[in-house]
Design brief:
With 378 residues, the chain is an alpha+beta fold. Helix content is 24%, strand content 33%. The protein has nine helices and 20 strands. The strands form four sheets. A six-stranded mixed sheet has the order 6-7-8-3-9-10, with helices on both faces. Strands 13-12-11-14-20 form a five-stranded antiparallel sheet. The longest helix has 18 residues. It is elongated.
């Protein structure tokens, strides 16, 4: 296995589209790193540049410590798993798995050993004689994965390999891929637009937006300490709420004016957000995750508690949790809209009805603060 290092990678297409901008990123040897972001953020362009299917406009790509910008795809010793299974329909599973090894003129004994090993790992031993049309979607995906594994390359590139599967099968295949990667210790660069998939699979997750790297960190760090407003809104489901607020310097410290209330910010909050002190008497954006909101009657009142009042517009029942959509006439969105929308995730046994006025609370420790101009976390 080998590490993959991208240094100031930029990709500009012939029509002037800037797909990737000044991206520096390292996938450590044996690491499972996920590139995630919305459509058009540049993640697939990054993968295609690493694979050699696209030439970077500038920057360098190293695989195993060797710069490979000038090498064609076949000489980079990488295996790629695509969104489409791309199996040969006229070949059996065995022949699909063995095709790449035959092209490399591998001795027959070693070829059979490798195919047998991969088939055993992926539970395909009983399907080696079948054609792809005789397999389920999950089995076809395992064959596509096995075709990459059997080559024993330096690293694996995976471009949304589960997106064509149904929801239940995606969850199952996620587990199988993660288990296999941990067992074999292979280096994987994995692309997806599904943030749940990214957070559950990656050792680290790199979030892209408009071709730029926003943050790369373990999933828990992305969730608890997002570096930008974009990361905060993209990571986590349902998405974070954003409301306009203002800081004022009071006689006893900083005061947060937020949703028609004024709250003194204690030192422990300021210690956790050192950039706040530089934004005294300025506007800022407050972020609040739906799961950190609780009905007022069920939360002990404390000095550092925020109170929010809203009118219920819609209740979405998902089983253990109800997603409650509210309108807050006393609050303003970062775009200046009033009333501001608010989403709260409440226990399913909490009875909430549309047109009801609901009072919610949250702790100041759960608030996130962002610069309204740069979007950077404070």
């Amino acid at each position: 296995m080998a590490a993959i290092t991208l240094t100031r990678l930029t990709k500009v297409y012939a029509d002037g589209t800037v797909a990737v901008q000044d991206l520096s990123l390292t996938v450590a040897e044996g690491e499972f790193l996920v590139l995630v972001g919305p459509s058009g953020c540049g993640k697939t362009s990054v993968l295609r540049c690493v694979a050699g299917l696209e030439s970077p406009t500038s920057g360098s790509i190293e695989i195993g410590g060797r710069v490979v910008n000038h090498l064609p795809p076949q000489d980079r010793d990488l295996a790629m798993v695509f969104q489409t299974f791309a199996l040969y329909p006229h070949m059996t599973v065995f022949d699909n798995l063995a095709f790449g090894l035959k092209m490399r003129r591998l001795p027959k004994n070693e070829l059979r050993q490798r195919v047998g090993w991969v088939a055993a790992k992926l539970g395909l031993e009983e399907h080696l004689h079948k054609k792809p049309r005789q397999l389920s979607g999950g089995e076809q995906q395992r064959v596509a994965l096995g075709r990459a594994l059997v080559r024993q390359p330096q690293a694996f590139l995976m471009d949304e390999p589960l997106s064509n599967l149904d929801a239940a099968l995606r969850v199952k295949m996620r587990g199988e891929i993660m288990k296999l990667q941990r067992e074999l210790g292979v280096t994987v660069l994995y692309v997806t637009h599904d943030q749940t998939e990214a957070l559950t699979m990656g050792d680290r997750v790199a979030v892209l937006h408009q071709g730029r790297l926003q943050q790369v960190a373990p999933a828990r760090e992305l969730y608890e300490h997002p570096a930008t407003r974009f990361v905060a809104g993209f990571v986590g489901s349902p998405a974070m709420n954003f409301l306009r607020a203002r800081l004022r310097q009071g006689s006893e410290g900083l005061i947060l004016e937020f949703a028609s209330q004024k709250v003194s910010l204690p030192e422990d909050v300021l210690d956790g957000h050192p950039g706040l002190k530089e934004h005294a008497d300025q506007e800022l954006i407050v972020g609040l995750r739906p799961e950190h909101l609780q009905p007022q009657s069920e939360t002990p009142t404390a000095p550092d508690t925020i109170f929010l009042r809203g009118d219920v517009d819609l209740v979405e029942t998902t089983g253990p949790v109800n997603h409650v959509h509210l309108s807050m006439p006393e609050a303003e969105t970062p775009e200046g809209d009033t009333p501001a929308p608010l989403l709260a995730s409440l226990p399913a046994d909490r009875s909430v009805e549309p047109r009801q006025t609901l009072e919610l609370t949250t702790d100041l420790q759960h608030l996130h603060f962002f610069d309204p101009e740069t979007g950077q976390a404070l």
